[in-house]
Amino acid sequence: MAATHRPSDKTPRTERGRITLRKLLDAAATEFADKGFHEASISGITRSAGVALGTFYTYFDSKDAVFRALVSDMSAGVGKAAREALAPSMGALEIERAALRAFLEFAAEHKEIYRIIDEAEFVDPDSYRTHYETIGARIEERLRQGGDSGEFVPGLGTPEAWALMGMNVFLGLRYVIWGREGDPDFTEIARRANILLTQGIGR
Amino acid sequence: MAATHRPSDKTPRTERGRITLRKLLDAAATEFADKGFHEASISGITRSAGVALGTFYTYFDSKDAVFRALVSDMSAGVGKAAREALAPSMGALEIERAALRAFLEFAAEHKEIYRIIDEAEFVDPDSYRTHYETIGARIEERLRQGGDSGEFVPGLGTPEAWALMGMNVFLGLRYVIWGREGDPDFTEIARRANILLTQGIGR
Description:
Two copies of one chain form a homodimer.
Chain A: H1 7-10, H2 15-39, H3 42-49, H4 53-59, H5 63-84, H6 92-109, H7 112-123, H8 125-148, H9 158-177, H10 186-199
């Protein structure tokens, strides 16, 4: 068998272990974003995490493995940021607006996410595809719930979910990564995207 | 000055020259898509184009230059495919539907476009950004015209244009690059995206 990811083998069991793992993932995000996958090194990651080189191997087998774990961690981070922005009282459309705003804020705090996810297309295509399929499925489920509650039209599915994901990703690209002086703020971007999503642009 | 792109220097003046340039760009698309930028070689491009190695330098100074020209050629190809799908009689919404359908067909014919544009983010960030800014500006202009004609709501601008571009790019990613047995066809995808765009998903 090829070197597969076996997270269960190396999942930390103590709080201290979880803190070290977090440090390694944060350091890996910076290292991969600054240098790109090929130039990045395990020693660069451990140096910036402030842990011994040997400690790295308690958590990961290889540079590939930490990269894969980082992509998965970022997918989870996007999901967590969206969930934390939601309140039980929100309707389906309000949820989409809050989720987009939370995503823009998450991306602004973690600008490296675009570079790392995009490099996964070349370094680890399975992680790249899983990242978008996971988020797409999450959005599709929200659209289905909105249809069930009667707030959205019925019959929404994969095409609408991917369209909405693409909107959000490209609004982040334009307003977070390539943001300019004088751009509308994230609240305003999320408001305008939500109007497009709710009412469309047809008169 | 750094090695800048000087297309005017090397633009072919004869029909035969234009045919050779086309062959080189098509061969470059295959070479870069198959091997990635770093592994791709000028000799691989000329071999697959069936032209002499020296001929390459009549058209391009370097591997970087042919890559840059290819990204620009692909941007132009997307624009041309959209324009050719349009008829003077079409309304603004019909234009968006036809443009998306044409883009999906173009991407299906040129599946390498995703890999090459996405690799430009790392190999030639300026080309990457120019690619999306060019397409975004083109969409924004169509939205403005639709607002002027009264078919779209007034006041559409950059956020709506980038949202629409993201929708189209991600529908291509899902249904062209990662297409599956049993997926709806491109006409149906464009129809559903157009409903979302026209009416939104709110009830």
